[in-house]
Fold each of these.
Amino acid sequence: MTHNTTRTNRGSSKSKLSRRLLLMGGFGGILATASMHELINLQLHNAGALSASASIQQRRERIVASQRGQIMARDGSVMAMSRPVNTLIASPNVVREYGTERTISWLARILNQSPGKLSEALYDQNSNYTVLARQVEAEPSRQIRLAINSREFGGLRLEPTSRRSYPSGELGAHVVGFVNGEGVGQSGVERYYDLELTGQPGRIISDLDPSGKPIPVGRYDPLAARDGSSLQLTIDRGIQHIAEQEIEAALATYGSEGGSIVVTDPRNGDVLAMANRPVFDPRSLHNYNGWSRSFLNPAVSLIYDPGSTFKIFTMAAALDAEVIGANSTHNLPGVYEYWGLEFQNWDKKTYPNQTMTSVLANSSNTGALWVANRMGADRFYDYVDLFGFGRRSGIDLAGEVNGLVKTRGSLTWYPSDLAANSFGQSISVTPIQMVSAFSAIANGGELVQPRVVRSIIHPNGSITSTKINKKRILKNSTVRTIKKMMYNAEHTISGNKSLSPNYETTGKTGTAEISGNGGMLPEQTIASYIGFGPLAEPSILIMVKIDRPQRGTWGSQVASPVFRRMVDRVFRYKGVPGKSKI
Amino acid sequence: MNNNVAKRRTRFFEPDIVAWPELDPVLLLIAVMLPLVGLVAVTSARMPQGAENPTLFGAETLRHLCITAVGFGLCIVAAQIDYRRYGSKSWVLYAISILFLVALLIPGVAEGDGPRRWLNTPLISFQPSELTKLSLLLLLSYGAGKSSSSIGSLKTFGFGLALLLIPTLLIVAQPDLGTSLIVLTIGGTIGLVSGTKWRHLIAVPTLAVIAGLVSVALNPYQWTRVRSFLDPSLDPLGGAYQAKQTLLALGSGGIAGKGLGMGTMKYHYLPAAPTDSILAVIGEEGGLLATSLIVVTFTALLARGLWIAAHAPDTFGQCLAAGISFQITMQAFVNILVVSGLIPVTGIPLPFISSGGSSLIISLIMMGILLNIARAGRMSRKL
């Protein structure tokens, strides 16, 4: 090769080289342009949408539970309180790295749980969220926290929450009620005052990584929780205790499976005690498998036919309407047909020229029928309504029902219902309605709305008292008359088991028949007694109701002795002056 | 030839302090800037690790710092060595890298259960495929220079193709389809620059397609990746989910970014944040400003590299300069286009920036060689 040819060769290959290098440069340029195009698209045109969906992916809102308020008895003793516990949350995909089997056997030991349940929760080892255990107490929580901090175990996290405890147990359980696993009130004041007790939960918005750990440079936006208010009940712990003992004893004595004792202050509607059977134990709710009939508060949620105790209202209404006077008499026979139905006295006896007081003393059905018939249906039902039957008393407890009152004009009403209603049959009421209506007799004619919460204590320390709602429904003179009649009637009855030798009280027995399929159930009754004292200025009203007693049938046999025992114990406890001291 | 010249030629390393100002300033700036950006970005991307295991985080950051320093040193050293001196010795390097690649396929040598990409020695672990890139660049460029007169012949082309094919197949066997395609690109570039006939050159992309098909046939997961790229609903939690995360990170950055260290996607949302997805971290924290600076820098690297190739004194230098700059920028653009969702996930790191010692050191050595070719070209023009 000569120098010359090399030159020309180099020249042509040089231009070929330039062409090929330019080709490569062009290809690179295309890729650079494509890259810039994509980046501008992503970071300029779609930045908003992409950044929003990245934000949604990372953002978690966690609720910070507010401390639920306490429920206290009248004397301030605690009946329901919340204490801090933790929910144990696991990321199974991280737990795997620390050894799933190892973690399960360790947790089973410190949580005292079966390993099977834990391994079920950790079954999906690719997931990053599962709840391992709820309501982990302080000591196991401390151990778990130690192990996480020392990196001995991982993929676990504790979220603070609270656990409701009921130190009083069955005592007043129906009034206090209970909360479910999520801390929401289910019955009693726990439900009725759920909003006040709960307060305002807070929340934390934060950015989390896929395993649920907070991102240090991410968002952290907390909003503090506002704690719930506490409640002071009208329930007097001492009286409640007496009522619980007496209802328990009465059930055992008379072979009954259910009943209620309600004690109120007729002057202001304060429920001092409300004891029912069957009752539940709020300390072991998990034993009830979600629902039990014993959760129902029979005093407000179950209806019954009141029977003879209702004659007081018939009589008071007729006196107030001035249809009869204290000295009126009637001559109806012991067995009487009214609008095609036969009504009879319990003893089927006829009492000629029977006075109104002896209508009460003998608990005469035909006597009550005579009174109601003289009033007429319209006026009778006006008074039934005034006494509050057929609608809720307004007591601050969850689950109160209306009762069933047929009035003239309703489709199922027959004229014969007036007769049955006059002595408390074919009308369904709740015990609290009876108590509320009876308070009007005790306090001089005012219907008082019963209440179980005296005051609401706010987290900042301020106190709101609950209102006392009163409405005059009877004239004062009417009440004076009916009280005197009741007193005389009660003292006419020989061997009256309701009268205490120590305290002056009056009231009325009731023996209600229980309606079943197609008629009344024989020998199945609800025995009750409602009374109040001391007579000078009644401050205590007691209702005793025993369902289906197996030993004894009549209110005078079954409920009266319980009422007397209640009077003796409660009046002594309250320091009410006895007869001998007057 | 006088005795003096012959004596000088026997010396392989020829330090020349006077030549410092003669180093190409554009190339030098790029070679310094990109690894420093990488050091900052990788340290930021490792913040989650820093929170969980501060000791490991400290050790790895220190390691990265040392490797960067060593890389800069090797770059300067390489810039002092006349590239023509590698010529005949490139066979040795080629043979060593083939040996390493074969060794990887022996059970128990490679690290872990997955693809066999890493070679462990008691002192260091490195990726032989990175060394393969350098050795192929040197050997094929040298060969092209030596046989420039017969470059059009099928025999010469066939010989070169055989040299190319051996490491390519060994890398496909790891399997590492992405790197094997980069290796083929190196061969294609040198073929193109050396003046190989077009009808011969067609064989290289054809081989690339065949390599791809074989690899996909042997490794069904690669096909799944392609399918999930084409239809993300097929695999919402797998590859498509990971690919989507890089887009979310880039989009979150917007124009100016969230600020250094303030990115949240690196907290286990991004797949391989310090390595393959490092651009997503840069994009989230530095915004479009930072990502476009990176694109511009790599484009400048290609332009400068091709300019150096055009002015290199011989075919060896032309092929080597074009091969180095094209190979590096192709990797960069493939990585950028993967991260921005235009092409399927391949597992190609971003040169100089992604965490990875072997890649960084080899890339900086290549930059040193490129600096040396630039200097040689300038000196030959001065003469």
Amino acid sequence: MSVDWITVAAQIVNFLLLIWLLKRFLYRPILDGIEAREAEIAARMGEAAAIRASAEARESDCKARVAELSSSRAALLAAARRDAEAERDALLAETRDRLAREQAEREARRAEEAARFTAGLHRTGAEALVALTRKALADLADETLERRIVLHAAAQLNAMADDLQEAAGPARAAVALTRDPLPEELQQRLRSDLAAVLEGVTLRFETDPALSPGLNLRLGGAQVGWTVDSYLNGLEAVLERHAERPLSKAISDAA
Amino acid sequence: MELTPDSTVVFEVWGIGINATILNTWIIMAVLTGASALITRNLRPDVPPNRWRTTLEVIVNGITGQIAEITERRDPRILYFAGTLFLFIVTANLLTVVPGFDTPTSSLSTTAALALSVLFAVPLFGIGSRGFGGYLKTYLEPSVFMLPFNIISEFSRGISLAIRLYGNVMSGAVIAAILLGVAPFFFPVVMDMLGLLTGVIQAYIFAILATVYISSATAVPPAKPPRAPKDQA
């Protein structure tokens, strides 16, 4: 066990040289590389933090916008609901008005149809009644309806002469109104009977297609009639009484 | 049986004999420097580290961490010194398994050189940290009567460092050589393996002790609290 001092000195030099070599080729490159990588990682972490902060800011901004939209949506929905309710009320009111108007129009049309139907029924009934009466008189008694009416009227004139004279006043022109022209024979008979009851009264004959079958005698302000209208009214009352439901239904269907 | 490679002169240069200790030291230096230069030649931050670079980073970071645990600060100069001590000794001790390679750490000249390096490095680091006066004052602490003991302690550190490393490495090599003569099979292998473990531990101990010595020399003493003013009453 001995120490070679030359070797000791050489080893000290070798060791110092090794320190410098390792510092040059090992420690500095490794430490510099680690520091550079740490700096790069720190830079990336900084960038990531900045990006994260930016993302968080955007997220909070988006959340604020969503909250704002939610609140405004609620307000918009409330306003829309109010508008919809107002619109609905207006539409309901308009619909009710229109329904009422249509109901009234339907009622008016129904009344008009009923009146038209009644008039038609009246006319048809009258014609049927007159036709049946004519046919019955012709078949059973060999008579005409106009002749029987004129004879009946002439027979009635004696009883109501005073009333007619009083109602007519100074008037001396009488008018006999019929729907169809009377035969000449019946005109002469009526004229002679009237002259016999009311002296000085002249009679002229006129026709009106709108009149009911029969005879209307007008003298001044007085008027006497022998028409089938009263019979038709009675026929209509009988028909309505016995066939009220079918008749109403018929009127409704017609409306 | 040669106990030290100092006596084996390999060749001469200008009349100066180059023994196996110096030659093998150069080989270790070449291995360490060459490997380091080879691995760190293309070292850029944008290139991901390969396994060799990672290995070097683990080694350097491990040494730095150990130093930081002892000194509680990061001083690259201590890393250069203690790290080189560790790498040199551990490489030399691991190369004992190479047949025919006389490790330089089995030479008392090498361990003495390393111990002298530590012995000179400690005051240099201390003076660099505390200043010349501040470092010399550490020999007078805790009192001036401790000056001879502190000087003896300082030199005994170096001697103990040198003898400890030399004794462990040389004894391992000697025991392996003796066992090789007595029982050529199995036992020398076991002892070599034990020698590897011992060599690593000795390298660690040498470097750690050097770091502790440097750390104690460079530690800045805590500032004295200001004296309280005397009570007038």
Amino acid sequence: MLFTGHVTWDQFFLLLGTGIVDGAILAPACLGFSLQFGITNYVNFAYGEAMTFSAFMAWVFGVEKFHLGFVQYVLVAGLITALGSLLIGALIYTPFYNRRPQLLYLLVLTFATALILAALYVIIWGEAPHVLAYPDGASNTHYIGPFLVTNIELIFIAISVLILAGIYALLKYTTLGKIMRAMSDDRSLATVCGLPINLVSNATWFITGFLGGIAGVVLGLHSYGFDTTLGDGFVYLVFAAVIIGGIGRSLGAVVGALIIGLVFELSSLIVGSALTPVAVFAVLVLIMLFRPEGLLGSTGRSAFSRA
Amino acid sequence: MTSPTLIYVITILILICVNSIAALGFNLQFAEAGIVNLAYIMLVAVGAYMTGIAAVGPPPPGDLVTHYIGGFQWPFPWDLLFGIACAVAFALLLGLVALRRLRHDYLALALVSILQGMQILVGTNTRLFNGITGITGVPAPGGDLPLLQSQLVFLGVAVVCLVLTYTFLSRITRSPLGRVLKAIREDEEAAASLGKYTVLFKLTAFAVGGGIAGLSGGLFAMYAGGWSSTAWLPQEGLILLASVIIGGRGRNLGVVVGTVVTVGLIQQLSGFLPLPQGLSVTILPQLQVMLLGALIIVFLWLRPEGILPEQKERFEKISLDPVPAVSAAVGAGAGHPSDTRQS
């Protein structure tokens, strides 16, 4: 099944719309992951686990126990995930970085943390699928221009735009955002300038945890039934998008997210839906071969960065 | 004496041998060449799948749900050699794309991304390797003998493979290639400035490590009689990472010791410990993953060089200047790659 027959415009626009929605779901997650790397120097393999955690928190607060409304449980899950991210960041990651800042150790540390968390989730929530509570009329469809979208997909896009605008304003106009950018540019220089490195690191863990949390709830809603592998099955797209956009670059993360979302959906027209990961790899390989610093990455840092 | 205890002891020994082979290959990539390949288990999977499809026959004619490529019915050892060759080829391809220009952090990220994507691709695509069910009925050498004999034959095969791998890797470590790899690991720019084309050396280590991964994967598939997408989840790679970190990265003997600890003590013996009240046996694999992960973090924090640390090579001080004070200052960086005598 290499070519799925002739493609109608309806199909094309349906997938284009879904691709944009996928990109919108990916964007906050990619932005959070990229900010974490830029500011704390951690390639956080446990980011998918933060998303899984948040989806389950949304399930606990929306379905299992407290039956909160839609907006409430999204926010509560996001905030609890942010707190969890802050805890792990402040208690494990930051002290570890101060003791052994070698990249090799940091990579192994977050990889091990990710698998510990994943195992913990299976112990707590088992392997059965869980379904979140949807707001009324979530699956009603509209035509917006040529795109056929559901209400919930519009909500996803709205959440994504709100978050991206919020982070843009934070980075551009607040003191915290300026320090975050300074640390991302040159951590040692920021340190000798007397900027509150640890405080801002912790703030970063909190904010990026919140981003991952919201992304996790949205992902849980989007997948109509999820289990503890929710984040793992998604986070490879986040990694790919971040590499494509340029790691540590905020705009790059958003651009990468949109590209991956579109490639993921539109490629199914050509290679069939079972082979979409291949299309994502193809884009990733092209980037690795021809622009290894990412589309918007800077070439300033040495290609021989030490392990 | 065909007691279950004896069979169990043989099983543990086989698992230690096969896991040691896998961990040694990982050590070559991770510790000798400094490539943070947290997706190593993917190379193991390539060897296992390709050995599997070379060994089994095609799906039976009436079976409409089983699909996989291959089905050559090759006898041992040709199926295993085919698996190794495919793993080397896959590692070369992956290395050619990823190792050339990517920074270390990008590389680690890209490899894990490819691992997760491959998982989904192979798990959901039933045409390639029969999806989530995987390849079954892979024959083991001596598999038609009675239980005890067949286990002993397989143990023999595993021990021979381990000894060959160990000897081969020890020779690599001592060879000029091994010294260049360590120089690249310590300071890639310095090695490059000495005229070494570092990508080629890293690619060699990556491919050789991939071949060893393929060997261990083929043995895994034969021993278990099959291979499926749940056999190479990222957490299956954690035990190899733990073996290398706990045992001592960069030292082959340390890696084997680490494997004895992780497979023998943690994976097997932990099953005999009483579980806390109210916990069921089904969560044991999860508890083991958590224990392995926690051990890795504890070792990284307290003793990152592992139980048996790597023996750093010492080089005689090279006098570059007649003034003794200056020459002592230069020689103070003993073991620095710029002092490394390369062939």
Amino acid sequence: MLTAFKNFSKFRYLLYELIKKDIKLKYRSSILGVLWTLLEPLLTMIVLTVVFSGLLGKGDESFPVYILCGRLLYSFFSTGTKTALKSIRKNSSTIKKVYVPKYMYPLASTLSSYLIFLISLIVLVGVALYEKVTLTPAIFGAVFPLIIVFFLTLGVGLILSVLDVFFRDLEYLWTVILMLIMYTCAIFYKVESLSTITNEWIFKINPLYSLIVNFRNAIFGRGPDMYHLWYSLAFSAVVMLFGSFLFYKKQDKFILYI
Amino acid sequence: MPEENNLDIITAPADTDLPDNTEKTETETTEKKKPDNTVKTETETTEKKKPKKKPKKKVIEVKNLGVRFNMTEQKVDSLKEYFIRLVRRKLKYKEFWALKDVSFTIRKGDRVGILGFNGAGKSTLLKVIAGVLKATEGSVTVKESVVPLLELGAGFDKDYTGAENIYLYGSMLGYKKDFIREKFDEIVEFSELGDFINVPVKNYSSGMRARLGFSIATIVDPQILILDEVLSVGDAKFKKKSAKKLKSMMKAGVTVLLVSHQSDQVRSICNKAIILDHGKLIASGKTDEICDQYEDLCANKG
């Protein structure tokens, strides 16, 4: 444990470099550059608002803010897991030649997505102010979903990065699973407003939905929903532990397959 | 002949309690004391500078090393196929030992040549020592920092410019940021890239890439240098320059591991050598004896 920690501090600078590389290269050849971090969620929000604004009744809370809360958390989860999934294979040439703690790659890709996500929260603040959503002390409750979603994404990312080394199919399979997750996140509708809820359990078992619910609660000045808070916390902890364990067990075999 | 030139690589499994005394070990006496011409002059100059010293530290200890690969007869890398085979219990592997029962000890300042034909396990051995590959059995203890020059520039990102890659590759080798910044100009200068340093690496020629990789990796004065046939980097001019750099590092007492097919390269650089064949250590000792033996082997096979 101690040696692992020492090793981490030795390669701390590498982690920083990898994150910097991810972010730098992502926007390198675009004219607007990092501005896209803000523009992209703003534009999708506008699209979703225009298309789906009928789904929420009058007098409800601000629809754009409602969408944005869900959309931002989901897109972090989706890009975070997708990049982590590919991280080991993408760096295969390095892994074969230079010794570096291998968890650095999924960790760095998740962290860089997280950083972009945190920056994009500026859009949410802007839209909330524009929509005159009154902020209450409940806003501090947003800290929990924001922290938990990171560990959920990292945990899932670790598992996926390991599995992807052995089964290339996962990349395609995961996009389909992500679609399922997206539709059960209730990004642009309310679960309660669905006329016939046949599969309510599907929302209850989606940890990302739990996080989104509590994030919205915090933004709209409500206290956290305890079921969703504990469920998402427990789920993320289990995934994180399992992911680390799996990664640790399998990492020496990567080189034989990549 | 300097005492230090004597050999202490021994064929195991009996090396568990190697005497710390480099000057006289059991195995040495069994070896013929041959003059060690090419290396001699080089070594003597090195030795003269240093005061008479205690037995040198073991820096690399390889004990009964074995590396096994499971070769699937048909490559299974799709989930469906895997499950089908798992259910039918048809996941058969063919075991293949790339290395088996290899043991030796390398002391500080040794320059060891690893000879062998294709597929003898040379690169596998270097990978294990570099920490990239895990041993299936046995152990490898490396006491000092290793800089592998396996494939120069393997850690580069092709979309990154040369300058950015200096920081990235440097961080992979475990350098600190301040250190890289301090040495930045020196690296650029040594690599002779000039203005190309601000061009993405994907537009580099292979020689340029190798030059940059070499410059970054050798800036640190590593304690153990691993060379996998990289001595032919760049054009004739740079080749000369890199050879000079390596020479000066060797003078400073760096431990070198060199993989080669060519015995003359080993003769000119190393003071000790081993031969690997089909994953087994078949000979180890002083450069000249081993190189002669290797040449005989080559002649027989040819």
